[in-house]
# Entry
Amino acid sequence: MFELLARDAAGRLGKLKTPHGTVLTPTLMPVYNPNIPLIPAAELENEFKIQMLITNAYIIYRTPELREKAAQGVHNLINFHKTIMTDSGAYQAWMYKMELPVTNRQIVQFEEILAPDIATILDIFTETNDHDVAQEGVEKTLKAARECVEIRKKSNILWAAPVQGGQFLDLLAYCAKELSLLDFQIHPLGTLAPALQNYNFKQVAETIIVTKQNLNPARPLHGFSIGHPIFFALAVAMGVDLFDSSAYALFAKDNRYLTVNGTFRFESLEEFPCICPVCIKNTPQDLKEMPTHQREYLLAKHNLYITIEEIKRIHVALRENCLWELVQERVRAHPALIEALNLVLSKYPEFFLKYDPVIKKSGFFYAGPESLLRPEVTRHVKKIVETYAPPAETQILLLVPDLEDNFHPSSLFQQCSELIRQLPHKGIIHLCIYSPIFGIIPEDLKEIYPLSQHEYPRNYDFAMNHHAKLLFHQYLEKFRSHYKKIYIFRPQIYYDNQNQEKILNYHPIDAIIEEATENFTSFNTIDQLKDALGQSQ
Ligand SMILES: [Zn+2]
# Structure
């Protein structure tokens, strides 16, 4: 039912097979309200090439003229012939603070009549600060899930059971584990809307990770209510496969214009920063002069184009293994997103290590201090601390700064490597690179991805300096007794040929030279180093 095509970070590109077609995930399901569709379903299918939309069984149930046509099936009812998912009304119960005049049993049976590709049980939205109330909601959701398994009759509908628990991570974990034991194919993550509305991205991010950690990984995860493209890349990097958007229409009704970096009020724009079919044909002034309905329709179309474009960009990033770089670009749109990324990378490193590919098509690009917490870095650091041992015969640690392409024949590293190779006692010298990103990179490991496939700016920032120093001390703490001497090669003048700057000026290697103790010696020229190595037998 769900086939994996590619992965990056904890995200995945997959194929979801449904009775009305195969959907490439991550995908975006526009929310379709059959009573007030801003963009007709046929247009979603033909112009936007939407593979899957989500509509609401409860809204159809409570609208007599729609309900009486239910037996035609939901595809005919709304005139959309690709994959359709139906939601159950739990969100409406929360939104309008009301008890629904319908039971889980009735909704499940009604959804079987509607025959969507994916149907959802009637769960309980758990937005509350009270753990007991949330727990009660989780138990009711689990009861509804068990009831659905018991009463459903049709075999050609995939069933979705939402994970509830709200802000309580223990309840989310419990709910995800229990639902994984039941026969369901998809799991929406419920109760994200309140935190999303408050820009509480830290809570949303942690909710996703805890759910993902406890859920059957073979089943797609639907980030219910994540409809703003500003959050898609990070959500996919944490394992979300499906998104739904009512934002494209709701924002349009409020004159809000979506971009991947945030939202503008369209009236304040002098020109549109987009070349979608709407924005290329119209100016903000044109839209101001239009009747309200026409303007809302066109803004909704722009909002949807932007949203789909971001999903496509994420597909490429998953295939090309550059999702982290996209995530780091996107989180710069709002400080609360940077906080969320920092939180999940520092609190859940093992989660990302489990999924992030060990070898990638693209190199590692430093894109800000969060890069230092990425799994590629964590993996190397963990290897050094937990399993690495310097070659047994080595006695002298020789550290050279990571300056340029270390494979280039004239690089500092290659010069040192050549020098050592000519020595009769070469076996006692352990050549290591000192990197602002990865700390100590022993020569014997440097071919491992991405130790030779990474780029970072040479104006070493505070974060890199601090990070590299920590990693150096961590290495020394473990291996100090292994080495008799530590040599640090820090060429006095090392010019960048292009801009004639001393690019070594701020390299973290200076910080460790300042701290040098009696076993440390630093050298400024290759001749000094040659003499010292020659005498070190
Ligand atoms: Zn546009």
Remarks:
- The mean pLDDT is 92.
